[in-house]
C-alpha cells in the first residue's frame, strides 16, 4: 500500500503536535509569591499532595494527560529525581 503525500503530512502533524506533551526540562512558574504548586500523587485535584513547589523549581516533565478538562504532567524534581508526581500544566513552563 502506498502512502499519499496528504497522509504523510497528517502523520507528521500529529507527531509534532505530541512533542509539546512529551518529556522535557520545565520550571514552576506563575504560582505567586506566597503560593506553592501542589505536587500530587496522581493527575487531578482528588489525589493526595506530596509537597508544595515554589516558583523557579526545576522539574523534568515526563508525560501529560488530560483529566476532567485539565492538563496534568507527570514530573520529577531535577534535584531529587526519586521524587515524582503530577502537577497542573498551567503552572509549568518549558525551558
Q: Can you tell me the CATH topology?
A: SH3 type barrels
Task: Decide which structural class fits the backbone.
Answer: alpha+beta
Using only C-alpha atoms, the radius of gyration works out to: 16 Å
Describe the largest sheet.
Answer: 5 strands, antiparallel
Low-confidence stretches: 5-21
CATH architecture: Roll
The fourth-level CATH homologous superfamily is: SH3 Domains
- Count every beta strand, where a strand is a DSSP E run of 2 or more residues: 7
Q: What share of the residues does DSSP label as strand, in percent?
A: over 45%
Alpha-carbon distance between the two ends: 41 Å
Order of helices and strands: HEEEEEEE
Task: Describe the protein's architecture and organization.
A hairpin with a 2-residue loop joins strand 4 and strand 5 (about 70-75). It is globular, with a radius of gyration of 16 Å. The protein has one domain: SH3 type barrels, CATH 2.30.30.40. The longest helix has 15 residues, at about 5-20. The protein is of the alpha+beta class. It has one helix spanning about 5-20; strands at about 25-30, 35-40, 50-55, 60-65, 70-75, 80-90, 90-95. About 15% of the residues lie in helices and about 45% in strands. The chain has 1 helix and 7 strands, in the order H-E-E-E-E-E-E-E.
Amino acid at each position: 500500500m502506498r502512502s499519499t503525500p496528504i497522509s504523510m503530512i497528517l502523520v507528521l502533524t500529529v507527531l509534532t503536535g505530541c512533542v509539546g506533551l512529551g518529556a522535557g526540562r520545565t520550571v514552576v512558574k506563575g504560582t505567586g509569591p506566597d503560593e506553592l504548586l501542589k505536587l500530587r500523587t496522581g493527575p487531578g485535584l482528588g489525589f493526595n499532595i506530596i509537597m508544595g513547589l515554589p516558583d523557579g523549581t526545576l522539574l523534568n516533565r515526563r508525560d501529560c494527560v488530560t483529566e476532567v478538562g485539565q492538563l496534568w504532567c507527570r514530573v520529577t524534581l531535577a534535584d531529587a529525581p526519586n521524587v515524582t508526581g503530577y502537577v497542573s500544566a498551567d503552572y509549568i513552563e518549558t525551558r
